[in-house]
Design goal:
mainly beta
């Protein structure tokens, strides 16, 4: 289960995106959020990856 939240960040000449997804912990069954600052082209790969 993924929650897609994307914010655009600009640092100098680079354009970056902060992506947040919600994943279920295999140990406890609780949901946690995983954040990453990545290239905008790779957002869908990050969201779809388990």
């Amino acid at each position: 289960m993924a929650k897609k939240s994307v914010a655009s960040l600009q640092t100098g000449s680079k354009r970056l995106t902060k992506a947040i997804k919600m994943v279920k912990s295999p140990k406890t069954g609780a949901y946690m959020f995983v954040e990453s600052i990545i290239n905008p082209d790779k957002v869908n790969d990050f969201i779809n990856k388990k």
